[in-house]
Amino acid sequence: ETPVAILHDVSGRDEEHTFGTLEDAARVRLSGRSPAIVIIGDVVDRRRPWRHPDL
Q1: Is residue 20 part of a domain?
Q2: What CA–CA distances, in Å, run from 19 to 1, 3, 26, 41, 54?
Q3: Residue 36: φ, ψ to 5°
Q4: Reported pTM
Q5: Is the pLDDT score of 12 beyond 60?
Q6: In this predicted structure, what is the pLDDT of residue 51?
Q7: How many other CB atoms are there within 10 angstroms of residue 2's CB atom?
Q8: What are phi and psi of 23, to 5 degrees?
């Protein structure tokens, strides 16, 4: 299964992250909101905390 991350409104106050697989994305039609970044592949499993609240 291929991992997927969808990052919405990155660095904005409404920032949101959605994680799943390509199969999940196809099944539920993860179109999401704009702007968004879609990351596909094993690199998603190597993620670190996306946001540092102390910054």
Answers
A1: yes
A2: 13, 7, 13, 11, 23
A3: -150, 155
A4: 0.70
A5: yes
A6: 56
A7: 12
A8: -60, -45
